[in-house]
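Box 3.1. Reading complex inputs
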Amino acid sequence: MQEFAVILVSSILINNYVLVQFLGLCPFMGVSTKLESAIGMSAATTFVLTLTAMVSYIVDVLVLMPLGLIYLRTIAFILVIAAVVQFTKMFIEKTSPLLYRVLGVFLPLITTNCAVLGVALQNASKDLNFMQSSLYGFGAGAGFSLVLIFFSAMRERLAAADIPAPFEGAAIAMITAGLMSLAFMGFSGLV
Amino acid sequence: MLETIAQQPILAALIALVGLGTLFGGLLGFAAEKFKVEGDPIVEQIDELLPQTQCGQCGFPGCKPYAESIANGDAINKCPPGGQATINAIANLLDVPAPELDAEHGEEADVRTVAFIREDECIGCTKCIQACPVDAILGAAKLMHTVIADECTGCDLCVEPCPVDCIDMLPVKETIKDWHWPAPPTTADLIASDRRAQL
């Protein structure tokens, strides 16, 4: 039980995929202008990350390892991710058309979110078991959601704030992300 | 079987990837059938945001047809009764930038108005009754007509057909019950909760 807690804390805070490992910055910048769409994006990405971690573990152990095809991990995992994202897209389109419209192009773009491939590849190279892999996937998604929601909440406030003209828009967003990253670096050595 | 395949690296790679591809393709094909989307619920949501005056100033016979047209990509700035607040709300729903009201379809009234019939001049021709999209005018042929003020949406459509010009558009006076502080002027994107208060 303690081991699971360690994995979660590690993947959410200490090795946060966005702010510490700098993976998945595209949706972090792109979908963070509105809190509502950020929450939707977080939920979708967490779902995809968890499912990808599970499926890619199964593919890795049942198909790639017995056939000695470990060098094909990247391609096989991309295949898994593409299928999972496409499935998520259909699922959201059916269950929440509004969220589907709000997420727009960013939903299929989860495929190219490098955090997703990053989690699958790191899990495979760490020799984790199934439970640990899926927990890492979920933790990565939760960490992504945490910083994305914080960041979009700040950006909504920033939009109405009095910012000096040269810093408006993307510039202040980059600075904010940098400061958040500095704060998350403070978690290193926690476990 | 597995070992013989594993001894042929190229064959193994081909079989593994093609197998995975087929498996996922099959699953997706199954999901596509299962999660098939029928209809477009976004039309209902747009229709809810429109003011339901059914005035036809957008060029469509009512609010619902205009909502369908918006869902198919029509401009969202054709609704003068709703004004900028409605445009902003639809833009927010569809996540597109909010344009100014299209002047071609009319101007946004500063104050809400209701139609008022000067009753001693009314000749009972029923032409305004036929024009009213919300059935807010009461009366019969050769009898005096009057407007149910609570039902009137202030769409102006009854003014034109009146042969004796006895219909006035009167501004609705603010009472102590419905007065509220005006929202502070701003150009920046507000956060969602503030934007709702401004509507």
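In summary: The CA atoms of residues 163 and 172 of chain A lie 8 Å apart.
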